[in-house]
User: What shape does this take?
Amino acid sequence: MTKIDYKKELDSYQAKNHELRIVEVPKLQYLMVDGHGDPNTSQEFKDAILALYPVAYKLKFASKQDLGKDYVVMPLEGLWWADDMATFTTARDKSKWDFTLIIMTPDWVTQDMFRQAVAKVAEKADTPVSLGKVRLETLDEGLCVQTLHVGSFDDEAEILDEIHDDFIPNNGYKMTGKHHEIYFSDFRKVSSDKLRTILRQPIKEVVV
Assistant: This one.
């Protein structure tokens, strides 16, 4: 049985360190949980992670056992936004951030499979407190600019400022969707200077 690794199959998961690149991101399906606050201190952030992964692995095992389709569980990703996007760059304030943590899931995973996976996780004695917040939805980001950032999350502000206020407007685009991060490193285990994160911003052409 072939095991699919979408990190290698999809161009939207490819990026080089601080090389800004415009990509067309296909419509993809994700497990999602919403929350608010500083990811370093927010309990909602921690609870979201603890709810997403058990469901993701239940779906992987169900897909392999019931459908004969095996795949690598994808990395954690985050959609981030705030009333004032400057809280991500020049006026950085993590406490003002809203987020949706997501894990990409193959398109053959159905809502019925999702509900069954959630039910199985709920049977465990240590049921995640945010399990009821997990949902399965598609996200259609379309045209985006992205780059790979290697280093601490706290060092993202400079490259994000370049993306938001330089690259995007100077190339005839404007921001549309939410700031998107893809975490290739487990930030609970990897030192901050070695973290590998794709930074992505959906865009659209400015009509003159």
